[in-house]
Amino acid sequence: MPKLPLLSGHEIIKILQGFGFEFVRQRGSHAVLRNGSIVCVVPTHSEVKTGTLRSILRQAQIDDDDFIKACSS
Length: 73
Prior knowledge:
Layout: H1 9-18, E1 22-27, E2 30-35, E3 38-43, H2 50-60, H3 64-72
Antiparallel strand pairs: 1-2, 2-3
C-alpha cells in the first residue's frame, strides 16, 4: 500500500471536491460530502491521521493511488 500524506481536513475536502464530491453540511468539526449516493464524513481537524484518511477514502470509494496522484497535482 502506498504511504498516505498527512493532510488537514480542509485539504482533504478540496481534493475530494476534485473527485466530484459536493459539500452538504457541517456539524461541529465534521463535514459531510456527497457524490451521488456516496456519502463520506471528513473531520475538519488541522491534521487527519492516516488511518482516518484511509477510512475516508474507503467511504468515498477512491483508490489510494488515485488520491495520491490528485494530491501531487
